[in-house]
Amino acid sequence: MAEHDLVLVVDFGAQYAQLIARRVREARVYSEIVPHTMPVAEMLAREPKAIILSGGPSSVYEEGAPTVDPDIFEAKVPVFGMCYGFQLMAQALGGAVAHTGAREYGRTSVQITAPGVLLGEIPDNHTVWMSHGDSVSAAPEGFDVLAATLVTPVAAFENLDRRLAGVQWHPEVLHTEHGQVVLEHFLHKIAGCRQTWTMVNIVDEQIDRIREQIGEHGHAICGLSGGVDSAVAAAVVQRAIGDRLTCVFVDHGLLRKGEAEQVERDFVAATGVDLHVVDAQKQFLDALAGVADPEEKRKIIGREFIRTFEAAEAEVLKKAMKRDPSVAGAKVAFLVQGTLYPDVVESGGGAGTSNIKSHHNVGGLPDDLEFELVEPLRTLFKDEVRLVGEQLGLPAEIVWRQPFPGPGLGIRIIGEVTAERLELLRDADAIAREELTRAGLDRDIWQMPVVLLADVRSVGVQGDGRTYGHPVVIRPVTSEDAMTADWARLPYDVLERISTRITNEVRDVNRVTLDVTSKPPGTIEWE
Ligand SMILES: Nc1ncnc2c1ncn2[C@@H]1O[C@H](COP(=O)(O)OP(=O)(O)OP(=O)(O)O)[C@@H](O)[C@H]1O
Ligand SMILES: O=c1[nH]c(=O)c2[nH+]cn([C@@H]3O[C@H](COP(=O)(O)O)[C@@H](O)[C@H]3O)c2[nH]1
Ligand SMILES: NC(=O)CC[C@H](N)C(=O)O
Ligand SMILES: [Mg+2]
């Protein structure tokens, strides 16, 4: 039997398919997202224990609306529909879906009329989050209608014989009361999924898998940034292959003030890993000269990272040989990266997702990559990674560190990256971080990029004289997993201190602005 039951989340263009996948995992069942264009036979070949049909922007009765082969409902695999998925199931099985004039967006009160299994043990009247303009006007035959709202008579249904169910609302969003309970009723009670997806299991399995992949004599390099993901990846791999792992930290000149020293000092002290530091500042800056396009920058940085790892190989092996002479003639065939599921999804490597931006470690990798990748966290979300980190006993400063992107300040300078501009941004960023820490807010926010609008100038007055300087943007955000985010409501006095200090202390910056955009529509980083 497979180690874990698999739940496939079929994505119909939902805003938050990732969120559904997360919630399933929070219910201790492993899940993956697949595009609705995947043939049903292919989905079934993966032997899912259950299938979830996501929401989506289309109307099921429209020509060309995304759909799924109705065979999916005949395969004896339990299926759960949410919103669009619910409507799709209704239509496919002989019910009716129409634009009834009822529209519900946001907070909506739902009345449970017959709880069945899906809505059992939940208060009759509770608040859910809706986002629909179409409605199921008649449930298919054999289905019990479980709930209604003032304007939506069929808001949830189930057919226990066929193990099919659905809700009009979005149980995956936090604003929906009892959303997780409803999902768990489907997963555990209706579909009978086993609850095996726990962090302890994941670590043990990954260790076994890595030993198998790397073999008894293989050597690996881990790109280590001081961030959470690579620290956890390194710790997992170290457990698997011990000192056949060497960590390589690349100082690409796009780091924050004091970062290289801090990683060298604190990280080694905390973990005892063998850290090899490469100064590649000139290499990266030369490669980036004259480039302003964000995707181009990302690809260049991705490529230069790999070239740096390749160049470090000889050095790494020399060290290894000192410890163990039998290493002579070996090659480092493996590259460990702290790639997470959202990196893959955003780079368009996820199922049916579009390329938002090429994360340097996924979409930005060069085609002629010689290393075989070892990515033990590739299916995990950040909060899962943090749990794994805690599980492995990594210190809190590492596990709870705010994320910092691999391409670093290179994607926070809007325009060409130059040494002078980096200097400016580094100073402004250091002040912002210092004030945030002083205010005790580090754990309250997800991260706070400081962005230099290098090609923009604005007029200011400083010391009674005219200045013509650059603006910086501060972008504090809150988030659960970086897939969605909101702008953080930092206290005004903290903002004020950041603004005053930056304009006073950083040459050529005469304006500080605050980014008040959520994600979507904005992304966290500006490029
Ligand atoms: N300066 C660096 N030197 C070596 N490897 C790096 C560096 N920056 C990033 N990487 C590699 O790229 C991967 C992805 O970077 P990313 O920033 O997403 O993760 P992280 O830095 O480990 O964690 P966090 O997201 O918390 O910053 C890292 O896990 C690491 O393998
Ligand atoms: O290692 C990385 N390589 C990258 O190329 C990259 N791009 C964005 N990020 C980080 O990912 C999260 C989501 O960022 P966005 O909302 O900007 O897409 C945020 O935490 C970003 O800081 C990156 N991390
Ligand atoms: N969020 C959704 O899945 C919406 C489904 C459909 N587009 C509607 O408006 O009813
Ligand atoms: Mg990082």
Short structural description:
This protein has 527 residues and is of the alpha/beta class. It contains 14 helices and 22 strands. The chain is 33% helix and 21% strand.
How are the SSEs placed, and which strands pair?
Blueprint: E1 6-11, H1 17-26, E2 30-35, H2 40-45, E3 50-53, E4 79-82, H3 84-92, E5 96-98, E6 104-112, E7 125-132, E8 135-138, E9 144-148, E10 156-159, E11 164-167, H4 179-190, H5 199-214, E12 219-223, H6 228-241, E13 245-251, H7 259-271, E14 275-279, H8 281-288, H9 294-323, E15 332-336, H10 341-346, E16 372-374, H11 382-391, H12 396-399, H13 419-438, E17 450-452, E18 458-462, E19 465-474, E20 477-479, E21 485-487, H14 492-505, E22 509-514
Bound molecules: adenosine-5'-triphosphate, xanthosine-5'-monophosphate, glutamine (GLN) and magnesium ion (MG).
Subunit structure: Homodimer.
Pathway: Purine metabolism; GMP biosynthesis; GMP from XMP (L-Gln route): step 1/1
Domain GMPS ATP-PPase: 197-401
Tell me about this structure.
The chain has 527 residues and is an alpha/beta fold. It has three domains: 185 residues, Rossmann fold; 201 residues, HUPs (Rossmann fold, 3-Layer(aba) Sandwich); 103 residues, GMP Synthetase, Chain A, domain 3 (2-Layer Sandwich), CATH 3.30.300. It contains 14 helices and 22 strands. The strands form five sheets. A nine-stranded mixed sheet has the order 2-1-3-4-11-10-9-6-7, sandwiched between helices. A five-stranded parallel sheet has the order 14-13-12-15-16, with helices on both faces. Helix 7 links the parallel strand 13 and strand 14. The mean pLDDT is 92. The chain binds adenosine-5'-triphosphate, xanthosine-5'-monophosphate (XMP), glutamine (GLN) and magnesium ion (MG). The site of glutamine has 11 residues, from strand 7.
